[in-house]
Amino acid sequence: MAEYVNVAVDAMGGDNAPVEIVKGAIEAVNESDHVKVFLTGQEEQINNELSKYTYNKEQVEVVNATEVIETAEPPVMAIRRKKDSSIVKALYLVKDGVCDAYVSAGSTGATLVGGQVIVGRIKGVERPPLAPLIPTEKGCALLVDCGANVDARPSHLVQFAKMGSVYMESVMGVKNPKVGIVNIGAEEEKGNALVKETFPLLKNCPDINFIGSIEARDIPSGLADVIVCEAFVGNVILKMYEGVGGTLIKKVKEGMMTTLRSKIGALLVKPALKNTLKAFDLEQYGGAPMLGLNGLVVKTHGSSKSVEIKNSVLQCITFTEQNINQKIKEKITMEEN
Amino acid sequence: MAEYVNVAVDAMGGDNAPVEIVKGAIEAVNESDHVKVFLTGQEEQINNELSKYTYNKEQVEVVNATEVIETAEPPVMAIRRKKDSSIVKALYLVKDGVCDAYVSAGSTGATLVGGQVIVGRIKGVERPPLAPLIPTEKGCALLVDCGANVDARPSHLVQFAKMGSVYMESVMGVKNPKVGIVNIGAEEEKGNALVKETFPLLKNCPDINFIGSIEARDIPSGLADVIVCEAFVGNVILKMYEGVGGTLIKKVKEGMMTTLRSKIGALLVKPALKNTLKAFDLEQYGGAPMLGLNGLVVKTHGSSKSVEIKNSVLQCITFTEQNINQKIKEKITMEEN
After folding, report:
1. Of A36, A234, A299, B275, which residue is 20 to 30 A from B113 by alpha carbon distance?
2. Shortest Cα distance from A15 to chain B (angstroms)?
3. Residue A276: which of B192, B217, B254 has the nearest Cβ?
4. Judging by DSSP bridges, how do beta strands A288-290 and A139-144 pair with one another?
């Protein structure tokens, strides 16, 4: 068993559970013999789904959990009370060392709270951020934090920069990743109180490649590899990607349907366009890791289909094999110098 | 002279000054006989530009100003020292009651500082916000504040909501405009400290149509008419519009150029597409008004061409004729009830 990366998958989380979750887990298992998935949730339903597929039985285990945490439930209460839920059970698999990683499309709040309370923080990490990959013209960038810690302090942002750098370098293979702090102007004296306090700390940080302030308009063009901001701003950035992207693509489609001439044109451009726009689809990157925990906790979109679950599970292999948490531990401790 | 709305136009501000600024001012004058423009800046250069056009001489006046405030200059210092600059002179025209409104494509900082220091706030207004119109699927929405007041307090946001409502109702003709506060979730208990404190104040505000929290992803779809947020977040929203929009349109164009088939299609869809996307162009709406000043101060994009200057000048007519400042005064005073 030691040869596998063990991933606990919340089979009951998200809009398409358990069908798409189980499907994605099996797709991951069928794509890599380095991984074993532990599906937590209502045994009967999971086994029912599993019976549809062919796979190596050694790579899949079902862990029964009778309860489900709903998205709307207050997360702290849910984690405390629903001990037999698919989320809590999956998180304990990581805490107890049975699994290396956790993947859920369920309640973000419960995953964030449970990650901290059950899995626990790496020693020295003050606030574990949620860090999704977002598409850019040059590939992708890591957005830290996009929703875990509102009202963050400067020292938190410095740790986000360090952990994000480790992730982009070791998981995504970006050498000496460029770190930028989101600001409302490129000049050093601009910004709100948080950014003004954080800027000199990042500037004096020897173990990151800090390129200074970046304006939000420069994020999609790929100016920085690690985008540091507090959670409220990060969440707005992520949601604006979805909102502006969705509306614009809708407008493009509408525009193409206005005349007979444009309708014919639309048929001709469609295949090429589909390919290019795919590179700009947020969901292709799998889930968002929560950095700085004793284990890997990955949150995927509530609307995740099997492909996103598969990518998230496969992402856990690189993360674990690259020893990311050990590297984060080392980088965070260097802070004391 | 009393029949004109008098608009001071900074002829030296922006990337395309004075050529496009003077051109835009003349276009406004030739479109409306309700407006008179006062062009501030280097007399000789302005007259040189003016000599290119035919227009009613009674509607244009040149006010000589020998200095220019550069975009990179620290604004407080610039306003204090460059008394003979095109920006300071134009602002004094408003302060002294010669003009009703001010339009500049120059330094945002100098306009914001000068607006407060020279033109001055309406009694009772704590912080005048910068409030651009942004495109949505349903038309447009007002984003308050997008850059004037970092580290705002809850009482400021409540005033933003009131002033924004007056603007959308009286200038844009939206009956009972829907006011939303930008948040990281739709539930009332979500948000950072600022939003949590502001939410109940907005909820209990009798003279606005508060619809609660809106997530950034719902802004482009047009869920709210007045979008309330503090300046840092507002600036990120505005810049994400530009950044995601620009990158996506670039990707669409690239996608259309990948194969012979798609190139032919592109030729066919182009005219229809251009029309649809025009409705999503930030610059068509003219400038962003700074609300709550004793007079109207409008900041347009640094890259403004004549059409944006023209639209900004024409926008001043509605603003002035609709007595917006009187309405803002009344709404702000109601706060005490």
Report:
1. A234
2. 17
3. B254
4. unpaired
Q: Does residue B221 surpass a pLDDT of 80?
A: yes
Q: What is the dihedral of CA B141, B115, A185, A217, to 10 degrees?
A: 20
Say how many C-beta atoms besides its own lie within 10 A of residue A226's C-beta: 29
Would you say A110 and A78 are in contact if contact means Cβ atoms under 8 Å apart?
yes
Instruction: Give me the residue from B147, B218, B261 closest to A268, CB to CB.
Output: B261
Q: Which residues contact A147 (CB under 8 A, 6 or more apart)?
A: A108, A112, A130, A231, A234, A235, A238, B184
**SS3 readout for B289-329:** EECCECCEEEECCCCCCHHHHHHHHHHHHHHHHCCHHHHHH
Specify burial of residue A54 (Cβ count, 10 A radius: 0-12, 13-18, 19+).
exposed
Q: For residue A257, what is the nearest residue in chain B, using CA coordinates?
A: B272
Q: CA–CA separation, A63 vs A7, rounded Å?
A: 12
Task: Provide φ and ψ at B253, rounded to 5°.
Answer: -65, -45
Structure tokens at B57: 């001489």
Average pLDDT, chain A: 91
Q: Which of A193, A244, A255 lies closest to B275 in CB terms?
A: A255
Closest CA to A245 of B125, B217, B206: B217
Nearest C-alpha neighbor of A4 from the set A336, A320, A326? A320
- Per-residue pLDDT of B51-95, as tens digits, reads 999 999 999 999 999 999 998 889 999 999 999 999 999 999 999
Nearest-CA distance from B225 to chain A in Å?
Answer: 16
**Is B270 at the interface with chain A, CB within 8 A?**
yes
Residue with tokens 């001043």, as numbered in its chain: B316
Non-local CB neighbours of A326 within 8 Å, separated by 6+ positions: none
**C-alpha distances in Å from residue A44, one per residue of A39, A41, A54:** 12, 9, 18
Is pLDDT of B283 > 70? no
**Tokens coding B37:** 């423009």
B212: left (phi over 0), alpha (psi -120 to 50) or beta: left
Closest among A328, A161, A297 to A234, alpha carbons compared:
A161
| Residue B269 pLDDT | 85
What distance in Å separates residue B98's CA from the closest CA in chain A?
34
The closest alpha carbon to A76, from A87, A67, A66, A60, belongs to A87
pTM for this predicted structure = 0.89
**CB-based contact A107:A14 (threshold 8 Å):** no
What single-letter amino acid sits at A1? M
Which helix (H) or strand (E) segment holds residue B274: the answer is: helix B260-278
Residues in chain B with CB shorter than 8 Å from the CB of A265 are: 264-270, 272
Contact B93, B297 (CB under 8 A): no
Q: How far is CA B48 from CA B23, B62, B319, in A?
A: 12, 11, 31
Secondary structure (DSSP) of A86-127: HHHHHHHHHHTTS-SEEEESS-HHHHHHHIIIII-BPTT-S-
Q: How far apart are CA A46 and CA B150, in angstroms?
A: 51
ipTM entry: 0.87
Question: Rounded to the nearest 10 degrees, what angle do helices B154-170 and B324-333 cross at?
Answer: 140
